[in-house]
Write a structure and sequence with these properties.
4 strands, alpha+beta, globular, 3 helices
Length: about 90
């Protein structure tokens, strides 16, 4: 799959967020499988993102589409990465 080209995955997070760490750990193998690039964004450093997401983190986007919020279902995330290649 890595030969298909990298995809950008964005994880909106904040320091000391245990759900964020769980999500990051859960998606790491899938990111490697697809050769996807993870971009972590600390919402506390941006007032607009803090207002938008507040306590509703982690939020994960694949490209411009929301893929998960709070908890990640790994097989669904894998399908979303695969679909992002077809879009």
């Amino acid at each position: 799959m890595a030969a298909a080209g990298p995809r950008e995955v964005t994880l909106y997070t904040r320091p000391d967020c245990h759900l964020c760490e769980e999500a990051k750990t859960a998606i790491a193998p899938v990111l490697r499988e697809f050769g996807a690039v993870l971009r972590e964004v600390n919402i506390e450093k941006d007032a607009v993102l803090e207002e938008r997401f507040g306590q509703d983190i982690p939020v994960i986007f694949v490209g411009g589409r929301k893929a998960a919020k709070h908890r990640v279902e790994v097989e669904q995330f894998r399908r979303q990465l695969l679909q992002s290649k077809l879009d």
